[in-house]
Amino acid sequence: MKTTLDAREARVIGCLIEKEITTPEQYPLTLNALTAACNQKTNRDPVTDFPERDMQDTVDGLVKRFLVSDKGGYGGRTTRYRHRFCNTEFGALKFSPFELGVICVLLLRGAQTPGELRQRTNRLCDFADVGAVEETLNGLMTRDDGPFVARLPRVPGERESRYVHLFGDTAPDLAATDLPAPGTDTTLPARVERLEALVEELGAEIRRLRGDAGE
Length: 215
Known about the structure:
This protein is mainly alpha-helical. It has seven helices and five strands. A three-stranded antiparallel β-sheet has the order 1-3-2.
């Protein structure tokens, strides 16, 4: 079963992943450091102002779900937290450094274009070009244990589509995203044929409902 995170949980997991990679000397994080990371004014969208008491509730919930560990302190009196979300001995979810960089930025910033992802993952991993980002995104969309990201329909006037992670409890309906199943024919005639079949199914359902209502 895929992990589902609300917005605050996604921010916590994203921050723990980010700090593990970018500031390993400060990781695991104290609650104070984690709260500050979640409320950073840079590299976050939206910018938040979570109170520490709310962060404690969120972290406690993640600990109960075994997505965060509070056993990471260095023998001191202050509890420190590390994620168990992926790439640990505690679960089967494994990402490459490039996949992890993409997932981390999507957790912290929401929907992103491949160009934005290349720029904003530079402290997490080193993509050679936008094509390498797109290759990683395609892999995350078609992995056997996924999908983990989806491509949103392109906004008119924009050159690139945006991508979102699929760990959120308000993740977009896959039917409303451009997310081909493995082996799906994605040519224009095939897509038109599928749309025509869908319209026919909807029409039949409407006729059935009208019949049940006595119209």
